[in-house]
Amino acid sequence: MSRHALPGAALAAALLLCVACAAPTARASSRAPMYFDAGTAAVHDETRDATLARLDALGVRALRLTLVWAAVAPDAGSAVRPTFDAADPNAYNWGGYGRLVDAVHARGWRVLITFSAPAPKWATAARTDQVTRPSAPELGAFATAAGRRFGDAVDAWGMWNEPNHPRFLKPQYVNGKPAAPALYRGLHLAAVRGLEAAGQSEDTMLGGETAPGGDRKRSVPPLQFLRGVYCAGCTKLRIDGWAHHPYANRRGPFYVPPDRDNVTVGVMGRLETALTRAAHRKLPVWVTEFGVQSTPDTTLGVPLAQQAEYRSISERILRADPRIAATAQYLLTDDTALSGFQSGLMTASGRAKPSFDEFRMPLTVRRSGAMALLWGLIRPADGATRVEVLARDRNSAHATAVATRPTDAGGTWTARLPWRAGRTWRVRWTAPDGATYVGPPVRVYG
Question: Which residues contact 435 (CB under 8 A, 6 or more apart)?
């Protein structure tokens, strides 16, 4: 993950109409798993149990873990490679990563592991930093060790986190030409072979895990990167799905990056078209990291209530797309430093944002003439259930129930109700144990 500030552009009304007008009953991706990456709060021993309990209560059943190579490898800060068998899982200090995967596996959740920089210094070409030209053979051996340690618990793997971003892989360009795609090809090939050597051949091997944007100077745009990975005449890679991190900026989910090789959540069609052309087949697309930045971030952050609305709209967009095989949320709790991420459902001090309740019960409302088209999801539901739709008019003191709707087995529901100017909407759900949950108020968009 990295902080992404794509260049500004006007909000595209045409795209809003195109994407939002998908029929509210479309459920092609309604069962796509939501992988939650809770960051260090899940890895650290002192916060893991509470973090997993919160995620469980929110209906999370799949976890993404960004496995930092240097955090577990021996003598990672040394330029001198230690003498050890790099394919032996007992040679690594898996620490909180290992305890997290064991705990999640015990819950029966799906697990996705993404390998990430920094690499051990001794595993890089010049051994002067921990991101420049990592050794593909060393990564392959590490992948074998990880596969042997975590194999029973993991069913999907990402070979390198955001390889089109200089925080995770260098050089991005050499003499003005993209160098990162070729470097990534070697890493991907070695990691897949390493995992297969560990007996993980049946798992999903993801390509990409690309950041949403590149400036063509320091970082490679994701579609330029994709084309470089699928280069003509190059060794064929095993890629079972292409992963991407389609963060937008404070303009919201319908933002259109002016560089057509950049891909945010509202223009996933760009990625899908480019991927089909490059791979010569319709590979599934995995969104393995996503979130909406909120205040106190002053660069990318939006107000807390708007974060909740933007997050629901983004999820609706992704779930209406039959090409999307998985979605994601990053983080649970904001980073303490403003230089980090404020995309969590809770503040750094542990206070729940509106998006905390919204994540449990995403809701979008779009106007269509005199009607409001509602789409929602009850994430903790284990089967079909019923929801109450609440509405509050502009001059009303309280919201009142205006409809009850059934969900499908996956918790998805829709409604078509009269539109009124200034009306806000929310949903109320009573769980089987009698607990009642109410989502935050949502405005009409479109």
Answer: none
CB atoms near residue 294 (< 10 Å)? 28
Single out the residue of 215, 258, 216, 214 nearest to residue 10, CA to CA.
258
CATH code for the domain in which residue 429 is found? 2.60.40.10
> Where residue 142 sits, what CATH number does that domain have?
3.20.20.80
pLDDT at position 446 is 74
The pLDDT assigned to 306 comes to: 97
- What pLDDT does 415 receive? 98
What range does the domain containing 407 cover?
366-438
Which strands form 400-406's sheet, in the order they lie side by side? Answer: 400-406, 386-392, 424-430, 436-438
d(CA 165, CA 173): 11
- Summarize pLDDT for 257-267 with one digit per residue, the tens: 999 999 999 99
* DSSP code per residue over 259-302: STT---GGGHHHHHHHHHHHHSS---EEE------BTT-SSS-B
pLDDT score for 6: 44
Report DSSP letters for 235-248, one per residue: PPP--SEEEE----
pTM: 0.93
